[in-house]
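Customer ticket, subject: "Can you confirm the structure for Alpha-tocopherol transfer protein-like?"

Message body: Hello, I'm evaluating your service for our small team and ran a test protein. I'd like someone to confirm that this is what the system normally returns, since I don't have a reference to compare against.
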Amino acid sequence: GCLLTQCLFSLSRIVNPDMVVLDVAKLGFLMGDYRLLNDVTHGDHWILDFSNATMNHALQFTPMLISKIYYFVTSCHAIKIKGIHLVNVPVFGHSILALAKKIMKPKHAERLHLYDGFENIFNVLPREIFPSDIGGTANTTVQELSDAWYETLQSESWKRFYANQDKNFFVDESKRITPSKITDDFGVEGTFRKLELD
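Agent reply: Thanks for trying us out. I re-ran your input and got the following:
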């Protein structure tokens, strides 16, 4: 593990009942691109608040989507996941978690923790890293953190960076020495992977 003072803590929560999970994943990867160039950390702790989750949100988590998100997080952004802390997961979300654990590496599945509320998570993670409006003692609110990210990602320099990615970053498949691992992982080429569910 890493010392908590050397880790990055990320707090996400569902606010919009019409939220599209794929859009949220894309936003997460935009934030990941920013972090690749600006952050130094020994690992990530993700805190996800599912207080407002609906069945509509749950139905969007297909096995393929979970696999792709996990692949991009661990292989493309190479994020060191030290802890995934899920707060207020509804009953219908537990089957999705079981599926996600099947897809994840065992070491990551072991780092996935559930909490009935934020008071319980304060026994594991320091209260001072949490915004004041969810019971923490940090001198900020969830909305203020969200606004700061929005302002950063919408700045002219970062809008240009994202707009130029498609032009500046691409793969020349003719120069690939070994077969692409992506197609094997997602069963498009090569053998299909079998996912066994209980």
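A couple of notes from the result: The mean pLDDT is 85. Residues 4-168 form a domain with the Phosphatidylinositol Transfer Protein Sec14p fold (CATH 3.40.525.10). Feel free to reply with more questions.
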